[in-house]
Amino acid sequence: MTVWLLGDQLHPESHVLDDTDRVLLIEATAVAARRPYHPQKLGLVFAAMRHARDALREAGYAVEYRRAETFGDALDAHFAAHPGDDLRLMRPPSYGAADRLRELVTARGGTLSLVRDDRFLCSSDAFDEWAGDDDSFRHENFYRWLRRREDVLMDGTEPAGGEWNYDESNRETPPADWSLPPVPRFDPDDLTRETLDWVTERFDTWGERSGFAWPVTRPEALDALDHFVEHRLPEFGAYQDAMLGGEYALAHSLLSSSLNLGLLGPREVVDAAVDAWHRDAAPIESVEGFVRQVLGWREFVRHVYRRTMPELAETDLLGRSRDLPTLYYDAETEMRCLDEAVTHVYERGYAHHIERLMLLSNFALVYGADPHELNEWFHFGFVDAFHWVTTPNVLGMGTFATDAFTSKPYASSGNYVDRMSDHCADCTYDVDATTGANACPFNALYWDFLDRNEGTLRGTGRMGLMYSHVDRKTDTEWDAIRERVAEVRRLARDGRL
Ligand SMILES: Cc1cc2nc3c(=O)[nH]c(=O)nc-3n(C[C@H](O)[C@H](O)[C@H](O)COP(=O)(O)OP(=O)(O)OC[C@H]3O[C@@H](n4cnc5c(N)ncnc54)[C@H](O)[C@@H]3O)c2cc1C
Ligand code: SF4
User: How far is residue 13's CA from residue 21's CA, in Å, rounded to a whole number?
Assistant: First the structure.
């Protein structure tokens, strides 16, 4: 029997490693050549795998590290050396992956035993038992149920601190004299540098490799967690929705890539935050806000994805087909907010949640871009992108291609950006204008979006207030809005927005 670890299953104490001393890791180049991935994404995954190989060998495992073009080629070599071997694998969360891998193994005379994925707190059986056959599940209910079950931030049967949700206190913008908390850098060692060199020579990529500073080992990921809890968790809650010019991290944890590669487990991350509250080192608003993201949203999207695939990846409730504006690819734009967000992605393979949701997705949403093209863009551009997490976030939360996650789209005008950031003050466009040559492109697109999608959206969830504003607009106003929208689309197509 051999344990097969995929490149995102790298926790050295995973239960899949129990009672074994033989491990297989496969570095397959064909997967990495499928898209023009960010060099930091490919460098991160391959460097983390190579470091895990060395750490497991040091811990006494016999690790077979096979480099090949495809999984099939590597498995040919494996079964030539170990005919009829049984491979034990943690069930991968991405749709269809387990079946595809099993076919490859059985075609070579082996067997594949799938075991529970311990990178998540809530198993598929537990989620299905909670949700039943009803697909109208909502995050808030799931979150409260899992918090109770896991006894996280609970005071008996009541939420610790008295509230389940501190969102109201968590929408602040930092004062002008805020001193930004420090962000750790994990400078590449020789092995990581060599891996990054190989990646940039071997593959067509999109993005810069020079700023690479991601944790690639378990000790580095633990340092990243400690650093976050000590320096940024205290202000995580208050400023989690804020955006500042020139700042990519603010008080965010930057832990998603480590969690998604298995370098950190969700329970230890949640426990570290709760412990900070017990030590009076972070306020309840921040700790609850963080627990909500990791124990709530991360687990929720994984299961809703599982329950709604493959339809999730194919449908679009709003039937859009426009090309994604070229500014997503070259960051050439006068729109200060999008310039900032796309540049963050290009330089680091990262943008924080509100940039992803309220800038990068929101613009594509109101513009009417094909959500599947946006999904592709997120997949190749982000270091933490994996199908099970990117697809539900982009197609569900980000663009409302499905209503499985939210009852209404996260659509907004420039007003939201102005409230939550300092971008508008530095922008060529006027955030207070909806029409005319200098008007913020978000504004006319927003009204046009509501108008175009009225048939689908007017009756949904909490859209009533927005449509009461739509109803008050005169024909003359609509003519000016449509004229501005046509101009914005022309500029976006020509790369001059
Ligand atoms: C359009 C869009 C695309 C996204 N794509 C990805 C993706 O490819 N990979 C990814 O891991 N997350 C994705 N997210 C979720 C979230 O934005 C990132 O997890 C987060 O920004 C990562 O940065 P951080 O570690 O600093 O997170 P923090 O803001 O510090 O949050 C803490 C942790 O909570 C978890 N988390 C928070 N929100 C979500 C969520 N909605 N779904 C899953 N986990 C969540 C992450 O593990 C994150 O590390 C996406 C969100 C949107 C709106
Ligand atoms: S004015 Fe509009 S385009 Fe400019 S930064 Fe503000 S929201 Fe973005």
Answer: 13
Ligand 1 pocket test: which of 286, 393, 406 has the largest number of ligand atoms within 8 Å of its C-beta?
393
Task: Please report where in the chains the tokens 């206190």 appear, as a residue.
Answer: 169
pLDDT of residue 336: 97
Average pLDDT, integer, range 433-444: 96
User: Mutation test of ligand 2: which of 327, 335, 428 has the most ligand atoms closer than 8 Å to its C-beta?
Assistant: 335
Average pLDDT (132-137) is 79
Q: Which CATH architecture has domain 124-181+214-307?
A: Alpha Horseshoe (1.25)
The CATH number of domain 2-115 is 3.40.50.620: yes
Write the CA distances from 260 to 43, 249, 289, 299, integer angstroms.
15, 18, 19, 12
Q: Please give the Cα distance from 354 to 364 (Å, whole number).
A: 14
Determine the pLDDT at residue 46: 98
Query: Of all atoms in ligand 1, which is nearest to the CA of residue 360?
Result: 1
Calculate the alpha carbon distances from 490 to 150, 328, 338, 438, 453 in Å: 52, 15, 17, 14, 21
pLDDT one-digit tens code per residue, 51-88 = 999 999 999 999 999 999 999 999 999 999 999 999 99
| Residue 293 Cβ contacting ligand 1 at under 6 Å | yes
Q: Quote the pLDDT of residue 377.
A: 98
**For residues 72 and 79, what is the distance between their CA atoms, to the nearest angstrom?**
10
Question: 459 alpha carbon to ligand 2 midpoint, in Å?
Answer: 29
Model pLDDT, residue 114: 97
Which helix (H) or strand (E) covers residue 65, if one does? strand 62-68
Give residue 313's identity as a one-letter amino acid code. A
What is the CATH code of the structural domain delimited by 327-493? 1.10.579.10
pLDDT in tens, 337-396: 999 999 999 999 999 999 999 999 999 999 999 999 999 999 999 999 999 999 999 999
- Pairing, β 2-5 against β 86-90: parallel
Domain boundaries, the chain: 2-115, 124-181+214-307, 327-493
User: Does ligand 1 have an atom closer than 6 angstroms to the CB of 352?
Assistant: yes
The number of the ligand nearest the C-alpha atom of 338 reads 2
Gap from CA of 350 to ligand 1 centroid (Å):
10
Measured CA to CA in angstroms, residue 243 lies from 131, 182, 298 at distances of: 35, 16, 22
Convert 212-221 to b/e letters by CB count within 10 Å (16 or more is b). bebbbbbebb
